[in-house]
Amino acid sequence: MTLLKKNKLKGNYTPPGDKSISHRIIILGSQAVGQSSISNLLESEDVLNTVSVMKQLGSNIKKKSGKYIIFGLPPGGLFTPKKKLDFGNSGTSIRLITGLISSNNIKAVLVGDKSLSSRPMKRVTEHLKRIGAIFILKKDNFLPMTINGSSNPVPLDYEILIPSAQIKSSVMLSALNTLGRVKIKEFASTRDHTERMLKTMDYDISFKEKKPHRFITMSNKRDLKPLKYKVAGDPSSAAFMIVAASLKVGSKIKVKDMLYNPTRIGFLKTLKRMGANIEIKNKRIVHNEIIADVYVNQKKELKSVTVKGNEIPMQINEIPILSIAASFAVGETIFQDLKELTVKESNRLELIYKNLKGMGVDCFIKGYDLHIIGNREIKAGGANITHNFDHRIVMSFYIANLICAKNNIIIDKSCVKTSYPGFFKDFNTLLK
Ligand code: S3P
Asked: What fold is seen in the domain 10-16+232-430?
């Protein structure tokens, strides 16, 4: 019997700061005229890459008494960086900052690690080149990328055909230095933190939804107001503990101060449909975002569900950990249309399938749909986990040990620092 198999999860838990919001507050704080002060910023490798790149582009960012203090420059004020901008593993940093640079009259060279260098960039550059920015990429799609920002960015209408907050936000950030009105049609299912934050900063932005679409209108008539901002807890990090507590008999946890934005909590809906006992309390609005406390009180066995393609963007980062829940849920769970999962930090669809198989779970892929035939049996485990240094794959298959007879073998877990440096410590504190 493994050590983990004996335990349940108990106690209070505060997840680390939200990664998506941490990136955005650093980038947008850098565009506000005046001083912003940020607390509870996620200090993960991805976010620290955003901080480092924004400094190289001229932002004055300092850490003082645990807070990040930013002295912003108005849109259009970016400096030409002295050296290549290294984004490490971070897709969000590079997609968003590419948009920002594209409407500044500067030249920059952008690079990243092996994983980021194999991820598509054309999805943003195809939109941004319409304003007059020039991009040079390997095979027109991959890093390294040279950008010659536009000296006279023109206001345009955009239609984004991939449901992606990164693409939408990239275009929105390019609009900050575009004179005139910019209109964007995209999918309502993508996370809307950029819109909410710009509104909080008093920017001239409006958005409305007519499902499945969201329509955004922006115009740079007003400066961005600096903020005193506290970053809410990351639901994508909390998801590991919430799934673990939903699986382990007798578990009872309280997740405090978690971001409860409707575009981020698809996984909670899925878990509830599977029969997890999850209650939401103390909902409140802070900085135009909903925050809540989440109570998980494990009571019954999980059952299978079908998650439709249009629900995937609202739980895109949680599919790896939900696949572990599905393995222990009675019946066939289907996650439909996971195409976007193939272009994340790794090909997550392939790695989830391979590793589930390795630990003895019955599953298959059909097109881009993932089928998992779950049951209440403890899985064999002992799989050699292939993670390609993808943080969410490592954390998911570590949690999977809870339902395995033998622990999975995960060599080099250091990549968890990408999004959640305190993952092992937080998990061990909850294990009783
Ligand atoms: C993010 C958007 C998502 C998500 C990523 C963070 C963001 O990517 O997977 O981890 O902060 O905008 P896509 O919008 O490209 O799906």
From this structure: UDP-n-acetylglucosamine1-carboxyvinyl-transferase; Chain (3.65.10)
Residue with the smallest CA separation from ligand 1 atom 4 is 317
Structure tokens at 159: 């239609």
Question: From CA 67, how far away is CA 227, in angstroms rounded?
Answer: 12
Q: Output the CA 313–ligand 1 centroid distance in Å.
A: 9
CA distance 401 to 378: 10
The model's pLDDT over 362-384, given as tens digits with 9 standing for 90+, comes to 999 999 999 999 999 999 999 99
Domain 19-223: CATH superfamily, name plus number: Enolpyruvate transferase domain (3.65.10.10)
What is the structure's pLDDT at 3?
Answer: 45
> How far does the centroid of ligand 1 lie from the alpha carbon of residue 164, in Å?
6
Taking the centre of ligand 1 as the mean of its atom positions, its distance from the CA of residue 379, in whole angstroms, is 31
The rounded distance, in Å, linking the Cα atoms of 55 and 112 is 17
Mean pLDDT of 77-95: 98
Q: Using one digit for the tens of pLDDT, what is the confidence trace for 188-238?
A: 999 999 999 999 999 999 999 999 999 999 998 888 999 999 999 999 999
pLDDT tens, position by position, 101-111:
999 999 999 99
DSSP assignment of 18-66 equals PHHHHHHHHHHHTTSSEEEEEES---SHHHHHHHHHHHHTT-EEEEETT
pLDDT exceeds 90 at position 5: no
The domain limits of the chain are: 10-16+232-430, 19-223
**95 CB within 6 A, ligand 1:** no
